[in-house]
Amino acid sequence: MKEIELLAPAGSFEKAKIAFLYGADAVYCGTSSLSLRTRADMQNDDLEQTIKYAHSIGKKVYVTLNIFAWEEKYEEIIEMAKTLQKLKPDGIIVADGGVMEVLKEYAPDVNINISTQANIVSMHSANFWYKNGAKRMIMAREMNKEQLKYIMKNKPKEMEIEIFIHGAICFAYSGRCFLSDFLSGRSANLGDCSQSCRWSYNLYTEEKNNPGQLMPVEINEHGTSIFSSKDLCLIKELPEIIEMGVDSLKIEGRLKTEYYIASVVNAYRTAIDDYKEKPENYDYTKYLEELNKVKTRGLTTFYFNDRENKDIQEYEGRQYNENYEFGAKVIEYNKEKSIVEIKNKLKLGDILEIIIPNKLEPFQFKIEKLWDIETDKEITQISPGVKGQKVKIQLPIKCEKDWIVRRKK
What we know:
Largest sheet: 8 strands, parallel, barrel
CATH architecture of the largest domain: Alpha-Beta Barrel
Number of domains: 2
């Protein structure tokens, strides 16, 4: 069975480490101002650190330069290309032909991957980019499985194919949207999306024979999120995707938390490994149960199975997770008193789950004792308060640094 890459988001160096810890083969991260997630905390020093760390443990890093660039951006793009030529990531993700031309000149030793923003939906389009120097095609999320199978059967042997398997979907065609720029002056195509599609809108109908008598159209008291979509989830379809021979499976979410990354990556990592070991025993429901523990919108297979699928919209525009939240991250393990960085309020009696890398089932336990990090005195509860707030806690199993702990609400 062909090796397949599990590709995770990394909005920071710390998130990249979490992704690798929980089984990602590679991460993708942005630059400070030239990707479609400029709010992700990844400055050039962090980028260099991420690349060096990844290569030291045999992992890969792809860097996104996938904005649609105005002329005034190219001086900065040229400088970034020179920087990436020195840093040597495993690929640079682009959508703009002009940006690609700059990279070919100023970063000739780095592979070019074509972003999903380029809307590749055909073999003809893939071949165009391939002939112009791109190695990997990140296919549009609007494609269905039959179209993907056709690509896999007819592509050049050296061409790599990457697809999204999990995460947020833009209401716009492959994410190419001007709604945010129109409503808030923040361009999604320059990495500053205000997610206007997730907002709640007040809509009204007017009967033409009674002008001025407006009747509200609403889902709840906030109106309706008519532009908002559900999140993609292809855990059930994973065996079929693996058998296609796709090169890379991508998880969306550079702005997501370390908890989200750990949970989702761990679920897909164990699913891939379990299927490769015993394909006949694959049961997607147990992985889906884990995926449902993270904050997400409703889930959809989008167009993968059916181009006529209408179950893609999230009219209430909110994210769901009634039962679990990010509890803590392990800083230092000690048999008697371990140190964790808390992410939400913890108190005696709370039920926690330790997410164990490469193991689907978390270890559940109840908080029996807490100690103040400074005084070492026993306490009954603690709130985050400031960034990096720490506490001492009894952990029932040996844990490694950076393991993630979720709290059951």
